């Protein structure tokens, strides 16, 4: 699904470039644009396969070769496209061709790179995919409703219909919605468990012992809230607290993705990216804020959530040669014995 959305968004933005710069007659350029899309996807999807399907790659000899030299192959493919671009340069069209070359690369950066981050979020657990997407949709709807019924004060010139009333109403509504949705999804293992790959059955698995952020905990309320609510403690999933950060970003910074898209369309005097969805414009019109949200979610997980992953380390160890595995075993054994963490019986047997 993500790949289909990504390809459609890429096609919409590239088509605008063709139309704006009247570049339909440039030799090879349409072919080169799609070639670069294939190259970048090959690189990112290859990285994902090597990262999450290490055991499967290790068993298949052709995949071992592709995984070992994946970055070199990706770079070679890109260089082939780069050389084809240079060979396609035509006198009197140099500037136009370089415009479109830059247009293609910026589009790849915006669309493909951020699509890859969405996939990375998916592997951390479905909850990191569903909650960010849902709160952006909620903010869009609630900001529209508050703006429609109570809007009086213009927010930004790029989007004349946006109002401060809609912006503020959307913020509070999104925080409440995200908090409730986080509570509902945190109860189900299917949503909170990182996606794993079982090398014995060759299937994805979503079974795990939920991490601490998805385990109900008791929190002591600040004195001010204790006096107002008559409660001293409250039981919450820690992820509900994280959802406030995600909702705040979706409400306060996320709309700037939409403003950016509005400015882009105004710069090239177009109303919508495409007419894919009647009355709503193109796919990119629906995903302008989603990509920004996906990037924030990925950075948030890496900065505040993700810790060392023993299963991933073990998977990487299994891909090493037997001598290398034995060397790591002896090093780890010596380290644990020096720290007094290895039971005497285990030390004697070893």
TrEMBL record:
Matching Pfam families: CTP_transf_1 (PF01148)
GO biological process: CDP-diacylglycerol biosynthetic process
Keywords, sorted A to Z: Lipid biosynthesis, Lipid metabolism, Membrane, Nucleotidyltransferase, Phospholipid biosynthesis, Phospholipid metabolism, Transferase, Transmembrane, Transmembrane helix
Residues annotated as transmembrane: 28-45, 72-90, 97-119, 125-151, 163-185, 239-261
Protein name in UniProt: Phosphatidate cytidylyltransferase
InterPro entries referenced in this protein's UniProt entry, alphabetically: PC_trans, PC_Trfase_euk
Subcellular location as annotated: Membrane
Catalytic reactions of this protein: 1-octadecanoyl-2-(9Z-octadecenoyl)-sn-glycero-3-phosphate + CTP + H(+) = 1-octadecanoyl-2-(9Z-octadecenoyl)-sn-glycero-3-cytidine-5'-diphosphate + diphosphate; 1-octadecanoyl-2-(4Z,7Z,10Z,13Z,16Z,19Z-docosahexaenoyl)-sn-glycero-3-phosphate + CTP + H(+) = 1-octadecanoyl-2-(4Z,7Z,10Z,13Z,16Z,19Z-docosahexaenoyl)-sn-glycero-3-cytidine-5'-diphosphate + diphosphate; a 1,2-diacyl-sn-glycero-3-phosphate + CTP + H(+) = a CDP-1,2-diacyl-sn-glycerol + diphosphate; 1-octadecanoyl-2-(5Z,8Z,11Z,14Z-eicosatetraenoyl)-sn-glycero-3-phosphate + CTP + H(+) = 1-octadecanoyl-2-(5Z,8Z,11Z,14Z-eicosatetraenoyl)-sn-glycero-3-cytidine-5'-diphosphate + diphosphate
Keyword Membrane recorded: yes
GO cellular component: endoplasmic reticulum membrane
MF term (GO), any: phosphatidate cytidylyltransferase activity
Recorded topology in the membrane: Multi-pass membrane protein
Species: Anabas testudineus
Domain of life, per lineage: Eukaryota
Enzyme Commission code(s) on record: 2.7.7.41
Family assignment from sequence similarity: Belongs to the CDS family.
Primary localization class, coarse: membrane
């Amino acid at each position: 699904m993500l790949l289909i959305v990504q390809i459609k968004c890429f096609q919409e933005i590239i088509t605008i470039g063709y139309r704006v710069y009247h570049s339909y007659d440039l030799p090879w350029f349409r072919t080169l644009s799609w070639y670069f899309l294939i190259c970048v996807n090959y690189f990112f999807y290859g990285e994902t396969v090597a990262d999450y399907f290490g055991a499967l790659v290790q068993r298949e000899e052709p995949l071992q070769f592709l995984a070992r030299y994946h970055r070199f192959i990706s770079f070679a493919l890109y260089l082939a496209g780069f050389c084809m671009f240079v060979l396609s340069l035509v006198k009197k069209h140099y500037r136009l061709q370089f415009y479109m070359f830059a247009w293609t690369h910026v589009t790849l950066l915006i669309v493909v790179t951020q699509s890859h981050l969405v996939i990375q979020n998916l592997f951390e657990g479905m909850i990191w995919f569903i909650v960010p997407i849902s709160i952006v949709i909620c903010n869009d709807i609630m900001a529209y409703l508050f703006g429609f019924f109570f809007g009086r004060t213009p927010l930004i010139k790029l989007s004349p219909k946006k109002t401060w009333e809609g912006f503020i109403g959307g913020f509070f509504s999104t925080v409440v919605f995200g908090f409730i949705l986080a509570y509902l999804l945190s109860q189900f293992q299917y949503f909170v468990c990182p996606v794993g790959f079982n090398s014995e059955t060759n299937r994805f698995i979503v079974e795990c012992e939920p991490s601490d952020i998805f385990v109900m905990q008791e929190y002591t309320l600040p004195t001010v809230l204790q006096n107002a609510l008559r409660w001293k403690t409250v039981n919450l999933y820690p992820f509900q607290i994280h959802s406030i950060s995600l909702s705040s970003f979706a409400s306060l910074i996320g709309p700037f993705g939409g403003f950016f898209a509005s400015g882009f369309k105004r710069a090239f005097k177009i109303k919508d990216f495409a007419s894919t969805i009647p009355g709503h414009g193109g796919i990119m019109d629906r995903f302008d804020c989603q990509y920004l949200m996906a990037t924030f979610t990925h950075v948030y997980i890496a900065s505040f959530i993700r810790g060392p992953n023993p299963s991933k380390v073990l998977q990487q160890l299994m891909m090493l040669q037997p001598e290398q595995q034995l060397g790591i075993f002896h090093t780890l054994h010596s380290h644990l014995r020096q720290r007094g963490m290895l039971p005497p019986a285990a030390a004697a047997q070893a």
